[in-house]
Amino acid sequence: MQITERHENGIIVFALEGRIDTQGAIDLADALEAAVDSGHYRLVCDMTNVAYINSAALRTLADIISRTRANQGDLRLAALPPKVRRVLQIVGFDRYSAIFDTAEEALQDF
Predict the structure, then answer these.
(1) What is this structure's pTM?
(2) Residue 16 — very low, low, confident or very high, per pLDDT cuts 50/70/90?
(3) Burial class of residue 54 in the structure, from the number of CB atoms within 10 Å of its CB (0-12 exposed, 13-18 middle, 19+ buried)
Protein backbone atom coordinates (compact mmCIF):
# COMPACT_ATOMS: atom_id res chain seq x y z
CA MET A 1 0.00 0.00 0.00
CA GLN A 2 1.14 3.54 -0.71
CA ILE A 3 0.31 6.56 1.42
CA THR A 4 0.82 10.16 0.38
CA GLU A 5 -0.19 13.16 2.37
CA ARG A 6 -0.95 16.78 1.69
CA HIS A 7 -1.88 19.65 3.97
CA GLU A 8 -4.88 21.87 3.26
CA ASN A 9 -5.94 24.62 5.67
CA GLY A 10 -4.60 22.78 8.71
CA ILE A 11 -6.11 19.44 7.66
CA ILE A 12 -3.98 16.49 6.57
CA VAL A 13 -5.36 14.49 3.65
CA PHE A 14 -3.94 10.99 3.31
CA ALA A 15 -4.33 9.50 -0.15
CA LEU A 16 -4.29 5.71 0.18
CA GLU A 17 -3.59 3.35 -2.69
CA GLY A 18 -3.63 -0.43 -2.94
CA ARG A 19 -4.62 -3.12 -0.46
CA ILE A 20 -4.88 -2.30 3.22
CA ASP A 21 -3.97 -5.77 4.44
CA THR A 22 -2.05 -6.60 7.62
CA GLN A 23 1.12 -4.77 6.57
CA GLY A 24 -0.91 -1.97 5.05
CA ALA A 25 -2.78 -1.54 8.34
CA ILE A 26 0.55 -1.19 10.15
CA ASP A 27 1.72 1.40 7.63
CA LEU A 28 -1.59 3.25 7.91
CA ALA A 29 -1.41 3.22 11.71
CA ASP A 30 2.14 4.60 11.60
CA ALA A 31 1.13 7.47 9.30
CA LEU A 32 -2.05 8.40 11.18
CA GLU A 33 -0.47 8.07 14.62
CA ALA A 34 2.46 10.27 13.56
CA ALA A 35 -0.01 12.97 12.52
CA VAL A 36 -1.97 12.77 15.77
CA ASP A 37 1.20 12.60 17.87
CA SER A 38 2.38 15.82 16.21
CA GLY A 39 -0.84 17.60 17.14
CA HIS A 40 -2.91 17.21 13.96
CA TYR A 41 -6.46 16.19 14.85
CA ARG A 42 -8.31 16.95 11.62
CA LEU A 43 -7.58 14.20 9.12
CA VAL A 44 -9.09 12.88 5.89
CA CYS A 45 -8.42 9.49 4.32
CA ASP A 46 -8.98 9.64 0.56
CA MET A 47 -9.64 6.01 -0.31
CA THR A 48 -10.25 6.44 -4.05
CA ASN A 49 -7.60 3.87 -4.94
CA VAL A 50 -8.09 1.35 -2.12
CA ALA A 51 -8.83 -2.13 -3.47
CA TYR A 52 -9.21 -4.01 -0.16
CA ILE A 53 -9.44 -3.29 3.56
CA ASN A 54 -9.15 -5.77 6.43
CA SER A 55 -10.25 -5.77 10.06
CA ALA A 56 -6.86 -4.57 11.32
CA ALA A 57 -7.26 -1.45 9.18
CA LEU A 58 -10.77 -0.90 10.52
CA ARG A 59 -9.42 -1.14 14.06
CA THR A 60 -6.72 1.41 13.20
CA LEU A 61 -9.31 3.81 11.77
CA ALA A 62 -11.54 3.41 14.84
CA ASP A 63 -8.61 4.05 17.19
CA ILE A 64 -7.59 7.20 15.33
CA ILE A 65 -11.18 8.45 15.20
CA SER A 66 -11.35 8.09 18.97
CA ARG A 67 -8.04 9.91 19.47
CA THR A 68 -8.91 12.78 17.13
CA ARG A 69 -12.38 13.24 18.61
CA ALA A 70 -10.90 13.34 22.11
CA ASN A 71 -9.00 16.41 20.87
CA GLN A 72 -11.97 18.14 19.19
CA GLY A 73 -11.01 16.81 15.75
CA ASP A 74 -12.05 13.91 13.57
CA LEU A 75 -10.92 11.47 10.91
CA ARG A 76 -13.14 11.62 7.83
CA LEU A 77 -13.28 8.86 5.21
CA ALA A 78 -13.77 9.84 1.58
CA ALA A 79 -14.20 8.39 -1.89
CA LEU A 80 -14.61 4.76 -0.91
CA PRO A 81 -14.84 2.33 -3.82
CA PRO A 82 -18.09 0.31 -3.75
CA LYS A 83 -16.49 -2.89 -2.38
CA VAL A 84 -14.72 -1.03 0.43
CA ARG A 85 -17.84 0.99 1.25
CA ARG A 86 -19.84 -2.25 1.42
CA VAL A 87 -17.39 -3.76 3.93
CA LEU A 88 -17.72 -0.69 6.14
CA GLN A 89 -21.51 -0.82 5.90
CA ILE A 90 -21.62 -4.54 6.77
CA VAL A 91 -19.67 -4.00 9.99
CA GLY A 92 -21.61 -0.82 10.82
CA PHE A 93 -18.65 1.51 10.48
CA ASP A 94 -20.78 3.97 8.50
CA ARG A 95 -22.78 4.61 11.70
CA TYR A 96 -19.57 5.41 13.58
CA SER A 97 -18.01 7.72 11.02
CA ALA A 98 -19.37 9.90 8.26
CA ILE A 99 -18.34 8.79 4.79
CA PHE A 100 -18.00 11.41 2.07
CA ASP A 101 -18.18 10.98 -1.69
CA THR A 102 -15.03 13.06 -2.25
CA ALA A 103 -12.07 14.29 -0.24
CA GLU A 104 -13.15 17.86 -1.05
CA GLU A 105 -16.54 17.25 0.60
CA ALA A 106 -14.80 15.85 3.67
CA LEU A 107 -12.53 18.90 3.82
CA GLN A 108 -15.47 21.28 3.51
CA ASP A 109 -17.32 19.53 6.34
CA PHE A 110 -14.67 20.49 8.90
Answers:
(1) 0.93
(2) very high
(3) middle
